[in-house]
Write a structure and sequence with these properties.
The protein is an alpha+beta fold. It contains seven helices and 19 strands. The chain folds into two domains: 40 residues, no CATH class; 260 residues, Clavaminate synthase-like (Double-stranded beta-helix), CATH 3.60.130. It is 24% helix and 23% strand. It has a six-stranded mixed sheet with strand order 1-2-16-5-19-3. A four-stranded antiparallel sheet has the order 4-17-7-15. It has a three-stranded antiparallel sheet with strand order 11-8-14, with no helix packed on it. Strand 12 and strand 13 form a beta hairpin. Helix 5 crosses helix 7 and helix 6 crosses helix 7.
Amino acid sequence: MNTPLVQTVKQFTERYQLGSPFDLDNEKAYQAWRESKLENYPQKVEDLIVAIKNPASLSPSEFDSIQTLLVKTNMAVYAGETGNDADKELPAKLGKQFGLTELDDNLGADDGITSLQVVSGRWRGGYIPYTNKPIHWHTDGYYNATDHQIRALLLHCVAPAEKGGENALMDHEIAYIHLRDSSPDYIAALMADDVMSIPANIVDGKEIRPDRTGPVFSVMPDGNLHMRYTARTRSIIWQDDAVTQAAVKTLEAFLKSESSFIYRATLQPGQGLISNNVLHDRSGFEDGDDVKRLLYRLRYYQRIANT
């Protein structure tokens, strides 16, 4: 089948009328979508970078370049010219251009925009994103309720660390392909509603967040694939059947591999990541006396429009 280089899942389904490629009983649709997905898939992080002037006001060509990457890989890195400008409206206005308006006003966020920086002596210091420690592979909001899942994620760099702070990135649809090709039973197990549980967050005897249980992979009402995952080994409960355990180990091994589908980048001032909440991690880092790492994080309940 000759398929176009870039097409959304919706476009694919409508064009070929094959049904959902994420239906385990629909191998024909899956194979056709897989072929289209992997055709000319970017092989290095440089292929994801789009040079722009101002993230708050993209030109039509800048917007189209970013959107094309988002459709293909669920992510793009923009390289703006705003440098160390700490205006939080820069990433917020970029997100709005892609239909992102419903921010997750999570614990630690300021009007839905979180300042990721080292914080000590306050409650934030007890959470890894506010330290300089490594963060394992995850999608954001894996502990959210099922009706408030994080569909899109935007990171904007104001200042990098003096050393370290690299992000690894992987399209969650690539993870799905790897697991389904390994064994469709893995996908079935990871789509179970009770496959992954996060125990309640209790601080000083007060429940900050209740237990959260749900699937790793799910199909959204618009037909797109959503992933909820963390590679953490503490405060997480997996179903203990053999298939689930094998699926988890297979995914862990893939994320630890040297696959060309894993991109690595350290965002620089004025650069940012816009994504449909792809898999990502962060290496540990060191701040200098005068250089303090600061990134803004924006989480959205919406998926990026037209992807």
